[in-house]
Design a protein that fits this description.
Layout (H helix, E strand, L loop, with lengths): L23 E7 L12 E6 L4 H6 L2 H7 L3 E8 L20 H21 L6 E8 L2 E8 L2 E11 L2 E3 L2 E3 L1 H6 L5 E2 L13 E2 L1 H15 L3 E5 L5 E3 L5 E3 L3 H19 L6 E5 L13 H14 L44 E3 L5 E7 L2 E6 L11 E2 L10 E4 L5 E9 L8 E8 L11 E4 L16 E4 L5 E6 L5 E5 L10 E4 L8 E4 L5 E7 L14 E6 L11 E3 L5 E9 L5 E7 L5 E5 L12 E3 L9 E4 L5 E6 L4 E5 L4 E7 L1 E8 L5 E6 L5 E7 L3 E6 L6
Parallel strand pairs: 1-4, 2-3, 2-11, 3-6, 11-14
Antiparallel strand pairs: 4-5, 5-6, 7-8, 9-10, 12-13, 15-16, 16-17, 17-18, 19-20, 20-21, 21-22, 23-24, 24-25, 25-26, 27-28, 28-29, 29-30, 31-32, 32-33, 33-34, 35-36, 36-37, 37-38, 39-40, 40-41, 41-42
Length: 689
């Protein structure tokens, strides 16, 4: 859904689209999903509030999944009836209000967009069925040419109650006992029904059992804060997006507690996309906008439309780029490339969150095969961890854990870490470092990804992006206990910080950030960096400073240290699809203000980096196709395979470069380069029960 009054660059949808398909309708009786059994094949379930949330904020990840042949299902929780006027924005004065017709038009538009993504033909035929779910009938539409592509419409409406609009967020908070649905014109479920919060969670759980996804995607459960032009602070996303994500998270938790294989869960930023620099290449943006234009019926008049409410959402039309949303795809938890580390005996160890638990994998022998993943104690972890190697060779794992609060809607978020009891040994209990928000419950959810570093005095510091879009840190004292959280300030810093220790033993910390000329409705100026440096090992971090750089960059960032102690900083090129390398000319020298652009690989997210023999830097990152790519001086090479979070890089005990990813089934996959056959992938066992 677009906001009124937004301005920006316009993209057009190239070419006329084909004739609209004939839709068929059927009726099915109650269907009880079969209980989960055996391994879960790759399958993606998206749970979003409105048609177009997936197209604006989750793509290109959806179309990339379709291109692998995986099953893709999207559930739309609300009716998304808006003002009920399916007219071009700015021309709605005097237009009649027809909520059922507008809902139907949005459904028709998203069917056309999914058909185009899956088959190239927006007119491809759909089978529309009335299916008895856990709490009554729902409409499930299946693409005839790709039976593993489906759309589910629940249609909860917004209603005026006691003089105010009651919506999905009220149902989540418990301020209304139930919400009724708004059936679309011509839908297969013409009757209205009501959902309580418990019934809606049960319905989503039923859909999880039906589709058995290996990956669940939704929008942001913890949206960023902003300050509007009048100085008022508020959450920056549509409240329906937030409520849907929180409902989805609870449904996934109940699904897993019932014994089902827990899916991987990925959340995406919503409206705040327009406040950060674009992080996609221009070809990806153009394709993303083409699908948005198809949804918006930008080709109206080029084919006969037989849908009763219209063939798309004219409020979006051909103006999708004006919102600033399609130019980026920003996961809420952007991940880190620092989850693959060497052990003192030369073996590699990997750590990742799978189904809310932290799993640990290790090589059986240096450079050899891997043992199956073993879970560390505890659950409820957000989907990213960062691993630090301590001076004595032990590893420390840092993450954020969500623990139940007094009520369902008030969980607590805390930064935690666990360390090995000895080098290559087991891990002790998780230790609670609290939250930089302290006792402010409303701000606990704002905590960002953990970024640890250890200085030359052997003291650990951990940094997070805080709710004020600055940075907070906590540092060990001489006795090993951690001091209090300290506000390191910084402004408009993106999540996805990078920290490393220089040759003098001082911690350096970077965050991608927007310049002082930032405006509420759109970034302005060239995005650059905030930089902090420790004065002396064991001392506090120095004051941070805004650093303009060329070209503009966007996070997350990566710092890597060579054997001589020199640091390299890696970032994604803002609005360009390239990778930017800032190379410090000498270990203690100044940082350059101009980086070297390595064209490609076109994706988003952090870049993994490692120094191979001879000091050569090689990189890995997400490509424009969504798969892993590597760079070793001769350009980027796509080595295949969809994955979640970020790829990690290392050099094994035999001197071979290693790329590791967590695949869409929650398994560790490792690629090593062979002189004879290039990159060879191996699956490192399955997750332990």
């Amino acid at each position: 859904m677009l906001l009124s009054g937004e301005k920006g660059r316009r993209f057009t949808v190239a070419g006329a689209l084909l004739l609209a398909g004939v839709l068929t309708a059927g009726v099915l009786g109650f269907q009880r999903p079969a209980p989960p059994a055996g391994p879960v094949p790759p399958s993606f379930l998206h749970i979003v509030a409105h048609p177009d949330d997936d197209l604006f904020f989750i793509n290109p990840d959806i179309v990339q999944a379709m291109r692998t042949g995986a099953a893709v299902t999207t559930v739309y929780v609300t009716a998304a009836e808006g003002n009920g006027k399916n007219v071009v924005r700015g021309r709605n004065a005097g237009a009649p209000v027809d909520h059922p017709a507008y809902i139907a038009a949005r459904h028709a538009g998203v069917r056309r967009a999914y058909a185009q993504m899956a088959t190239g033909d927006p007119a491809a035929r759909w089978s529309r069925r009335r299916v008895h779910a856990r709490h009554g009938f729902v409409e499930i539409d299946t693409l005839a040419a790709r039976r593993r592509i489906a759309l589910v419409f629940l249609n909860l409406g917004n209603w005026l109650v006691d003089g105010r609009v009651r919506r999905l967020t009220d149902l989540w908070r418990g301020t209304v006992p139930a919400l009724a649905t708004r059936p679309p014109l011509g839908g297969t479920v013409p009757e209205s029904r009501t959902y309580t919060r418990g019934a809606l969670i049960a319905e989503l759980t039923w859909l999880l059992r039906r589709y058995r996804p290996s990956v669940v995607r939704s929008l942001d459960p913890d949206p960023e804060r902003g300050v509007d032009a009048k100085g008022a602070e508020h959450r920056t996303d549509n409240p329906d997006h937030t409520a849907t994500a929180l409902l989805a998270r609870e449904a996934v938790a109940r699904y897993a507690r019932a014994g089902a294989p827990p899916p991987q869960v990925v959340y995406y930023r919503g409206y705040y996309n327009r406040h950060w620099p674009g992080n996609l290449g221009q070809e990806t943006v153009a394709e993303k906008l083409a699908f948005v234009g198809t949804y918006g019926w930008a080709d109206q008049g080029t084919f006969p439309c037989h849908e009763p409410g219209g063939c798309g959402d004219l409020q979006v039309g051909a103006t999708g780029a004006l919102s600033g949303w399609p130019q980026g795809t920003h996961p809420r938890y952007p991940g880190t490339a620092r989850w693959l580390r060497p052990l003192p005996d030369g073996r590699l160890a990997a750590f990742a969150v799978v189904g809310g638990r932290v799993l640990r994998w290790e090589e059986q022998a240096p450079g050899g095969p891997w043992r199956p993943g073993v879970p560390l104690p505890g659950d409820g972890f957000l989907p990213e961890v960062s691993v630090l190697r301590l001076p004595d060779g032990r590893l420390a794992v840092f993450g954020v854990q969500v623990v139940p609060g007094r009520t369902l809607t008030e969980p607590s978020y805390r930064v935690v870490y666990a360390t090995q009891d000895r080098p290559s040994g087991g891990f002790g209990d998780w230790r609670d470092l609290g939250n930089p928000a302290g006792g402010a419950p409303a701000r606990l959810r704002d905590v960002g990804a953990t970024v640890p570093a250890v200085d030359g005095a052997g003291r650990i510091s951990v940094f997070v992006r805080n709710g004020g879009l600055g940075v907070s840190g906590r540092t060990q004292r001489a006795d090993g206990a951690f001091g209090p959280w300290t506000d390191l300030h910084g402004k408009r810093v993106q999540d996805g910080l990078a920290a490393e220790t220089d040759a003098a033993g001082r911690i350096e910390l970077f965050g991608a950030a927007l310049p002082a000329g930032w405006q509420w409705d759109r970034p302005s100026g060239t995005p650059g960096l905030w930089h902090w440096r420790q004065g002396t090992p064991g001392g506090p971090m120095g004051a941070g400073a805004w650093t303009p750089v060329t070209p503009g960059v966007t996070g997350p960032l990566t710092l890597v240290r060579d054997r001589g102690g020199r640091l390299d900083l890696l970032a994604r090129q803002a609005n360009g699809g390239g990778t930017v390398l800032f190379r410090r000319p000498r270990p203690a020298g100044p940082w350059p203000g101009t980086g070297t652009v390595l064209a490609g690989p076109g994706g988003y997210g952090p870049v993994g980096a490692a120094f191979a023999g001879g000091g050569a830097l090689w990189l890995t990152g997400r490509s424009a196709s969504g798969s892993a790519a590597v760079h070793s001086g001769g350009g980027w090479q796509d080595i295949g395979g969809l994955f979640l979070q970020a790829p990690a890089a290392a050099v094994d005990a035999t001197g071979r470069p290693v790329v590791a990813v967590i695949d869409t089934q929650g398994r560790l996959r490792v690629a090593r380069r062979s002189a004879a056959s290039g990159w060879e992938w191996r699956t490192a066992g399955t997750q332990a029960p």
